[in-house]
Amino acid sequence: FIKPVKPLDVMLALDELTTPQKEEPLRVLLVDDEPDVASYHALLLEQVGMVVKAVHLPSEAFAALERFSPDLLLVDFYMPACSGKELASIIRQQPEYVGLPILYLSSETDSRKQLSAMGAGVEAFLTKPVVPEELVTTVQLHAERLRLLRSLMIRDSMTGLYNHSTTTELIGKSLAHASRNDEAQTMAMIDIDSFKEVNDTHGHLAGDQVIVTLARLLQSRLRQSDIVGRYGGEEFVVLLKQTTAGQARDLMDTLREDFSRIDFHTSDQCFRCTFSVGISAFPRHASTEPLRLAADQALYRAKALGRNRVEV
Ligand code: GH3
Ligand code: MG
Ligand code: MG
Ligand code: MG
Question: Is 312 within 8 Å of 249 (Cβ atoms)?
């Protein structure tokens, strides 16, 4: 899994990552008792690239919510088994769906009835027959806002990496999985060297640029399945799946070398930066806290031995 190293590769990978990453298509769950109506609405949304699942009974909605994990729910207001309002109220009571955008779709045009239906805490009431552009735009608007809110909660806004609490949670889950499958995993704790000096010499903005660049380097060179988080200011944590300490050391050493060759520019100066790494291995350290502690101690050794190095 160690990709070949050339400074050019690093810069290319960084360039790719400065452009926004391709978004996953929006997912919409549709609940409508009339299959023809449902497929027409599904078609309108699929035409603009969304992924749509339609169910025809309100009772099917919960299983579909769980399995399909949509970004938005589109509910028919009048259905024989249970009204859209009843369904929306029940869904809203579940903590995990508190933020899920719910839109009604109905032939009901009486504004008083519409207003009363909104009492269930839904975002909008669209009337049938729907204007296609209105459906698409309203769905996009609400679903994208939910995506943004979710991302703010789990990621660090500066780098886009997982934030501290998400990183800790994901590492816990990953180690539990590793334990069940007798899998070797490795933690790497990364800390930028003499970063206070970088800030003092080149300014806070240049410092930020270094942090973002390192984040992108890690994200572009590690596997999709690895966990990469910003643990604190200039400190990052990586959990490498199916990787021994020796493999992790080689990989981190390659990244360390690549990073140290990147030129950072301010208006009048060019500078370089390094980082140090501490590595610890699971199952030698059998849970998150001992693993983190061991990585931290290894990092401390790397700093004490002169920085710009990897210690296990
Ligand atoms: P060492 O090699 O021992 O790690 O030295 P250091 O200077 O990197 O360590 P120290 O922990 O003393 O300093 C870290 C500095 O990182 C202090 C803090 O102001 C800075 N910092 C933390 N978060 C950010 C950030 O988001 N942006 C910038 N520009 N600086 C940050
Ligand atoms: Mg109906
Ligand atoms: Mg630090
Ligand atoms: Mg530091």
Answer: yes
